[in-house]
């Protein structure tokens, strides 16, 4: 049991590191920094590791990105909501499109709306409103989720995805 947890923790750390490095390829949209690699990682974590490890990877990568000046506080609600919903939907439905839908809806709608209080009350943004971040987060998550589709579908079709999951659980 401990060996399985260690494997999953190590892979979670690797995914968080890839998300941080991937944030070097970000772009600004309406006051938020869009980092599509984070959303790719959210889907991979959802499918391979599950919701808890996905949220952990999203939190750690958001924290490191903020400490390094590569992101804003908006990274927390956006990435963590997407990771959680993608992981939960995949866990219960067991289909890749469930993870994709969870990532997009969780990040764009839920994370976008939860970013309002962060921007308005913590960051002091006067122009923030409830739906201000939905469109920028949607743009970011759409790109990252498309990358995830391009990676996870072939992995699933070739059986590599199932092999990775079985290796983690042995």
What does this 3D model show about the protein?
This protein is mainly alpha-helical and 170 residues long. The chain has one domain. Helix content is 77%, strand content 4%. A hairpin with a 2-residue loop joins β1 and β2 (32-34). The longest helix is centred in the middle third of the chain and has 27 residues, at 96-122. It is globular, with a radius of gyration of 15 Å.
Order of helices and strands: HEEHHHHHH
The total beta strand count reads 2
User: What gross morphology would you assign?
Assistant: globular
Query: Could you tell me the strand content as a percent range?
Result: under 5%
Mean pLDDT: 93
- Residue stretches low in confidence (pLDDT < 50, at least 5 long) are none
Q: Helical percent range?
A: over 70%
What does the radius of gyration come to?
Answer: 15 Å
InterPro entries: ThiW
Keywords: Membrane, Transmembrane, Transmembrane helix
Pfam families: ThiW (PF09512)
Protein name: Protein ThiW
Summarize the structure.
Keywords: Membrane, Transmembrane, Transmembrane helix. This is Protein ThiW. The chain has 170 residues and is mainly alpha-helical.
